[in-house]
Every structure is written in structure tokens, then in C-alpha cells.
Amino acid sequence: MKKVLLAFGILILSACGYNGNYRYSCQDPENWEAEECNPPLCRVDGNCTETLLGFNPNETTTTQEIVAP
Predict the structure, then answer these.
(1) Terminus-to-terminus CA distance in the chain, angstroms?
(2) Is 1 domain-assigned?
(3) Could you tell me the residue range of the domain that residue 29 belongs to?
(4) Within 10 A of 32 (CB to CB), how many other CB atoms are there?
(5) DSSP 8-state class, residue 42
(6) What are the helix (H) ranges across the chain?
(7) Is position 36 within any domain?
(8) Do 36 and 46 form a contact (C-beta atoms < 8 A)?
(9) 5 in any annotated domain
(10) pLDDT in tens, 8-51
(11) How far, in Å, CA of 6 to CA of 47, rounded?
């Protein structure tokens, strides 16, 4: 019974605190052009939009590498 209550408690607590916001302000599309989200300022704390997203949202073209099987 303790294991069931523990599992239930963990499940309930894991959902606490979510308010729909982004973890980092530079992930929010509204802040992509902000000074603190673009180099050189963002490099100080690693909060660059490109670093957080894994791509540059301001680029209009993308490149894909096709790997043959």
C-alpha cells in the first residue's frame, strides 16, 4: 500500500507548478529579437535563442543532410 501511495504522490507532485510559460525567456517567440537573446549578450549565460532551440529561428532556409541507407 505504501508503494501505491508513493507512486500516486510522485505522480501528483510532478504536475505541480506548470503555468504554461517557457523555461527560458529566450525560448518565447516574442523575445527572439530581444537584445538579451542575441549575441554577444546571450553568450554570457548561454541563453541564446539559437542555443536553446537548436536552430536559428531567423533563418528562412534549412539544410537537411540525406543519408543513404
Answers:
(1) 51
(2) no
(3) 19-57
(4) 16
(5) H
(6) 2-14, 41-45, 49-53
(7) yes
(8) no
(9) no
(10) 877 777 766 667 788 899 999 999 999 999 999 999 999 998 89
(11) 36
- Distance, in Å, from the CA atom of 38 to the CA atom of 9, rounded to the nearest integer, reads 41
Q: How many domains does the chain have?
A: 1
11: in domain: no
Give CA–CA dist 3/30, Å, rounded.
44
Q: Return the amino acid letter for 34.
A: A
Report which of residues 63 and 43 the model is more confident about: 43
Amino acid 25 reads S
Take residue 14 and report the three cell numbers written for it: 510532478
Which triple of cell numbers denotes residue 6? 508513493
pLDDT at 37: 92
